[in-house]
Every structure is written in structure tokens, then in C-alpha cells.
Design brief:
alpha+beta; 5-stranded antiparallel sheet; 15 helices
């Protein structure tokens, strides 16, 4: 801000900057503080009116002889509010005002006083709809960044917990919080993430974490297996931080992005640790087995139906007994896409109609489509299992990665029979094995490189290491 510019000229400049003649929600008030002209800028809906009123009441009590020479002295001596700062450029002021911070410009001071008395519209920190809790805390992240960082601070009361804030997006100026434990985090990866965020040249992070993830890891998009773990549970995020991971929170997003994440990190859930070790181990093994079945069940069944002489006598019941009017591969592919269509329809269905429409869709697509000859009952059974089993693990990204690999296996099996099945299975294994975390390490560690002690911890839920300094394996 230029030295010596008249108050009226600066006021006019700020009015043009914020387009106050057209923006109904950008409010300004011209005041008198200590015998000097002053103006207050804020966005209606973000500012706490009662807090601003109490601060201004104190400012109005100041006399002209009490006004200091500089804005720094004024902020230091006469600002009763704790969250206050000074800015000296129009760009910084405009970004902060549009973020909800209240600006106070006083005649004679070059800097502008910024009062952070904002209050974003937000919902309660209730249990997330996606990450349901079997046992444990039932609070969840919301769309307000400060609330989310507070939920983590509540669980980790250690001064070594560092939460740095930066921004990205030339138009959106979206706040991004990077949380980590000093002394436990991979400093090389942390510096790399900070540098990548600082060098982002995007107009806006329209899709929150997904926009950021695609900017951080733009290569190898053809590999569908996720590089990041997302969670709406503060306990999962806090436990990941204690393990030395980095948690990234983006304003307006109710999910935390955890990195680096291997396939074992993504499959693992916090619920494993809210039950005794034997129960947690059973839940974990069940989740892993079901994830494997969702990938292999329908392609293996299709392979056996194409080679019925391979079916053992004890499994003869899996043969199709009714007439097949449509080829099995087309039945399976149609159901794969139809199920996703129903899922999308359920998202856009009003809540009060979700249950009755789901029942109607189940009856029509289940019973009557079989009677009409479109599908065989065996095909419906196996696809129903795969559909329900997909919800055994919380990661949407991993679920769709397995789905894409399953589609590849179905198509290759239908075209090339056994060799297509084998080839697609090898491609799936290689897609997982040659994938890398964002830190550049093995995606399937501790399988590659093999470490039995670590692999055992991934498979078997051991006792919580309460006495260990490194924290528990949650997340």
C-alpha cells in the first residue's frame, strides 16, 4: 500500500477492489476511532457480529491523544482480540477478507489490521455416513478446516504435532493443512509435498482432495490402485500421524488424505483395534479374503462354465441347470454396469424413497429378469455377493480398482479362455506389485521387500503397544 495516500483514495480503491456496488455480501462501515477516520470491511455470513461489536466498543472508547504513531503499536497496545494481525498489501488483504477475516483500516496507518473473528457455516461433527463406526468415537471431520485440526489436536496433545497451513489455487486460494509429528515423519517426503503444493499452478481445487491428489501424483493414471488413503474419522487420522505419516486436510472437505499409503494401509481399518486381538484379527482376515473373492469369484466361475469338465464332482452344483439365452459374459458385464447405475440412482434418490425403490428394483431386476430369460439365477447370485462384498472395505478407490481388474479378467477369460484368465491375473498382480507409494516405496511392503515381522503385524492384529513410544498401528 502506497505511503502517503489519502484515506478517501484508499477507501475508494478498496471499494473498487471488492466491487461493493455489486457484491451485496461484502459489507463496509465508515467509523471514527480515536478521532481518526476508519473503515471496516467484512463478508456478511462469515463474521461474528457480537465479537465485532465488542471489539468496536473498546475502539470507540479510545481518545485522540491515546492513538499511537504506527499500526504495529496500535495492534500491540489496543487490540484486545487475540487473533489479530497486520497486512501491508492489497492482495493479502483481499484474500483474507474473502476468507472471512475482518479488515480494519485506520487513517494514518499504512498497514491494515486483520481481525480473525470469522465463523463458517458448518454442520455438527457427527458420525460420518461413509466411515461407519462399530465401536469407538463417533465424531467425524466436517467441511471447516479449523474444526478438523481441533479434532486431531484433541487426540494428540504433544507439542511435536505440527500443523502447517498453506494455500493453493489462483482463484480459490484454498487453505490446505499439513499435519505431521516432528521426529517421526519422513522429512524428505514432507519437503517434497510442501514443494509440490507451493509450485501448484491451478485456478482452483474444485474437487478438494481429488484435485490436489491429481496435482501431486499426475503420472501413471492408468494404474487404478489408489496412492492415497482417505478417511473421515479423526481417530484414524490421529493414529496415522503418530505412525509417522502425513495427513493433508483441505478446507471445505470432510476427509483427510493420508500418505504415504500402501495397499495394506488402505485395507486396514481402525475398527480392528477397537476389539480384542482375536476379534480384530478375524475382522482383518475376513476383509482381506472378501476383497480377494470380489476380484476372482465371477471370472473363476466363468472360466469353469466355459470348461465344465474341469469342475470337480463335489462342486457339480455350480453348473447352470436352466437354459442360457444370453451369453454368460454379457450377463456379467450387463450386471456390472447395471449395479453401478443403480448405485448412482440411489445417490440421487430422495431419502424417503430410497428404501421402497431399492425393494422394487431388487424384485424387478432379481426375480422377473430371471423369469424373463435375461439372466440366470446363478449369475444373479454371484453378482449379488460381489456387490455386497464391495462394501466390506471403506475405500471407494480400492473397490473400483478391483472392479476394473475384474472386468479385465472377465473379458480376457471370455475371449482367450484359460490363457486369458491367466494373463489378466498376471496383469493384476503386476499392477499391484509394480505400483509405488507417493514416497516411491513398494506398494505391497512388507511382501516386497519381504519382512516377516512386519507382515505378521499386517495380517495378525497384535496387542496395542501402550508402552511403546511409537504409538499404535491404526489407520
Amino acid at each position: 500500500m502506497t505511503q502517503g495516500v489519502r484515506f478517501e483514495d484508499r477507501l475508494k480503491r478498496f471499494q473498487e477492489l471488492f466491487h461493493t456496488d455489486r457484491n451485496f455480501d461484502v459489507v463496509y462501515h465508515v467509523l471514527q476511532i480515536g478521532g481518526r477516520k476508519a473503515v471496516l470491511f467484512f463478508v456478511d455470513g462469515f463474521a461474528k457480529d457480537d465479537t465485532i461489536s465488542r471489539i468496536l466498543q473498546y475502539f470507540f472508547s479510545l481518545k485522540a491523544e491515546e492513538m499511537p504513531e504506527t499500526a504495529h503499536d496500535f495492534a500491540k497496545q489496543y487490540t484486545p482480540y487475540g487473533e489479530a494481525g497486520l497486512v501491508s498489501t492489497e492482495e493479502d488483504m483481499s484474500v483474507q477478507v474473502l476468507s472471512g477475516i475482518t479488515a480494519l483500516m485506520i487513517d494514518g496507518y499504512q498497514e491494515v489490521l486483520m481481525l480473525d473473528c470469522r465463523s463458517y457455516p458448518s454442520r455438527g461433527v457427527s458420525e460420518p455416513e461413509k466411515d461407519k463406526v462399530m465401536r469407538g468415537s463417533r465424531d467425524g471431520f466436517v467441511e471447516t478446516l479449523v474444526f478438523n485440526t481441533a479434532l486431531i489436536r484433541r487426540r494428540i496433545r504433544d507439542p511435536k504435532l505440527i500443523i502447517e497451513v498453506t494455500t493453493a489455487g489462483q482463484s480459490s486460494h484454498t487453505d490446505i493443512a499439513i499435519a505431521y509429528m516432528e521426529g517421526r515423519v519422513d522429512t524428505h517426503l514432507l519437503d517434497k509435498i510442501k514443494q509440490q503444493i507451493a509450485e501448484l499452478h491451478v485456478d482452483a481445487l474444485s474437487m478438494n482432495q481429488e484435485s490436489l491428489a491429481e496435482c501431486l501424483y499426475p503420472h501413471k493414471w492408468y494404474n487404478p490402485f489408489p496412492k492415497f488413503k482417505f478417511s473421515e474419522r479423526p481417530d484414524t487420522a490421529a493414529a496415522s500421524i503418530l505412525e509417522g505419516n502425513i495427513v493433508i486436510l483441505v478446507d471445505t472437505s470432510p476427509a483427510a488424505m493420508i500418505l504415504p499409503s500402501s495397499v495394506f494401509d488402505i485395507i486396514e481399518e481402525a475398527d480392528d483395534y477397537y476389539f480384542p486381538p482375536i476379534t480384530g484379527t478375524y475382522l482383518r482376515l475376513t476383509r482381506m479374503l472378501i476383497s480377494l473373492l470380489t476380484l476372482l469369484l465371477t471370472p473363476t466361475w466363468l472360466l469353469l462354465m466355459q470348461n465344465t469338465n474341469w469342475i470337480p464332482e463335489s462342486f457339480d452344483f455350480i453348473r447352470i441347470t436352466d437354459d442360457v439365452h444370453i451369453a454368460l459374459i454379457w450377463q456379467l458385464l450387463i450386471l456390472e454396469f447395471a449395479i453401478d447405475g443403480l448405485r448412482l440412482a440411489a445417490v440421487n434418490t430422495p431419502s424417503m424413497l430410497t428404501t421402497p425403490l431399492s425393494v422394487i428394483a431388487g424384485i424387478v431386476l432379481g426375480e422377473y429378469s430371471v423369469k424373463a430369460g435375461w439372466f440366470n439365477s446363478e449369475t444373479m447370485l454371484y453378482m449379488a455377493f460381489v456387490t455386497i462384498a464391495n462394501y466390506s472395505q471403506a475405500s471407494f478407490e480400492l473397490g473400483y480398482a478391483l472392479k476394473f481388474m475384474r472386468l479385465l479378467m472377465l473379458i480376457c477369460t471370455a475371449i482367450f479362455n484359460f490363457w486369458g484368465y491367466l494373463l489378466s491375473l498376471v496383469i493384476t498382480i503386476l499392477a499391484i506389485a509394480f505400483n509405488k507409494t507417493i514416497a516411491g516405496k513398494s506398494y505391497i511392503y512388507p511382501l516386497i521387500p519381504f519382512r516377516w515381522s512386519e507382515l505378521k503385524k499386517r495380517i495378525v492384529r497384535t496387542r496395542l503397544p501402550h508402552q511403546k513410544k511409537g504409538g499404535s498401528r491404526l489407520g
